């Protein structure tokens, strides 16, 4: 299953938890694993707190501070820092499905991580039933 | 299956390899995948060397050095650095099971990573039989 | 299935996409998941752009810049920075298999990440058929 995510900013965390949960419901899986994959090299997916919007904002702030924008980069598209963030945060997450629901912790949500936007992006979701 | 991990320090790596191996044995899985998931947003799980205790100590030292403690954080709980470490190290690991054993490398162990302790934490283990 | 990777440099990204694709073909899997695991603690696996060789070179440059070489490390083998990179980039990747092919994005390839070479290394590949 493929979902579309549209980012508005250069770097941005977009909460996609409810869309993934909807995909689990659509496929009618009761128990198994949900595999979330980002088919891009300047984006990523992560799980973190989705109660306080300051949390994703702080994470982006740290990544944008720690990963140098102007190192002696050889890649000429000017987005090398985005490629680094993509490898550090990672292209996939696996989440258990239990009683038809994503088995996340109380404070956890799933974020699409845009590191070189704004762009129209895709997220692949694959469900493995037990 | 849910296991409990109790951390004693603010940041700490706790070797949980033997508990995960015990869970594999309890469920009687011979071959498949073991999925380890941390349902917290200021903790993580990683695989690294568990022969020399200096290794997890050095990893924590680097993370605590590289991720700024006092950036202009907006999240008011004072644990934004912990949220960042959680996303960088990651909430899950997948390990193959072979002949009833976790198929880890010679020097590999599985660590629960506490970034905002001390706390009582949980780790979810899900086994997929082949 | 176990494949061998031989690194030539201290730190190096080696594109292993075609070898993994060959493993998928050999096992005759049409649809499922491909699990790629590195059984080492000073190496990792990541997915990133494999069109421009400057991208992996830039990622290595950032990691080698951001992770300090000479912090007050306790581990006496002199490769603590490699252990840190291993935990940050991660020991595994999961990739969907669709129509007998790795379901990667247009620009994505799979890299073995050497952080303490040169060495002879191994990569474990496990395929789960749907």
How would you explain this protein's 3D organization?
3 copies of one chain form a homotrimer. The model of chain A has no long low-confidence stretch (mean pLDDT 96). Chain A has a 5-stranded antiparallel sheet, covered by helices on one side. The first copy, chain A, is elongated. Chain A is built from 3 helices and 8 strands. In chain A, 26% of the residues lie in helices and 37% in strands. Chain A is an alpha+beta fold and 130 residues long. Chain A has one domain (2-129): Sandwich (Jelly Rolls), CATH 2.60.120.460. Chains B and C meet through strand 4, helix 2 and strand 5 of B and helix 3 and strand 8 of C.
Topology:
The structure is a homotrimer of 130-residue chains.
Chain A: E1 2-6, E2 12-15, H1 17-27, E3 32-37, E4 43-49, H2 54-66, H3 80-89, E5 92-98, E6 101-102, E7 108-114, E8 120-129
Antiparallel strand pairs in A: 1-8, 2-7, 3-5, 3-8, 4-7, 5-6
Could you provide a short overview of the structure?
By secondary structure, chain A is of the alpha+beta class. Chain A has one domain: Jelly Rolls (Sandwich), CATH 2.60.120.
Overall shape of chain A: it is: elongated
Mean pLDDT across all amino acids of chain A: 96
Number of self-contained structural domains of chain A: 1
Order of helices and strands of chain A: EEHEEHHEEEE
Number of helical segments of chain A?
A: 3
Quickly give the CATH architecture of chain A.
Sandwich
């Amino acid at each position: 299953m493929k979902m579309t995510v549209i980012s508005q900013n250069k770097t941005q965390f977009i909460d996609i938890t409810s869309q993934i949960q909807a995909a689990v419901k659509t496929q009618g899986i009761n128990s198994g694993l949900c595999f979330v994959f980002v088919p891009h090299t300047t984006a990523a997916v992560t799980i973190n707190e989705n109660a306080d919007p300051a949390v994703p904002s702080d994470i982006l702030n740290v990544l944008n501070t720690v990963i140098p924008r102007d190192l002696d980069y050889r890649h000429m598209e000017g987005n090398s820092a985005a490629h680094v963030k993509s490898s550090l945060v990672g292209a996939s997450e696996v989440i258990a499905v239990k009683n038809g629901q994503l088995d996340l912790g109380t404070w956890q949500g799933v974020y699409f991580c845009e590191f070189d936007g704004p762009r129209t992006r895709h997220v692949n979701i694959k469900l493995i039933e037990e």
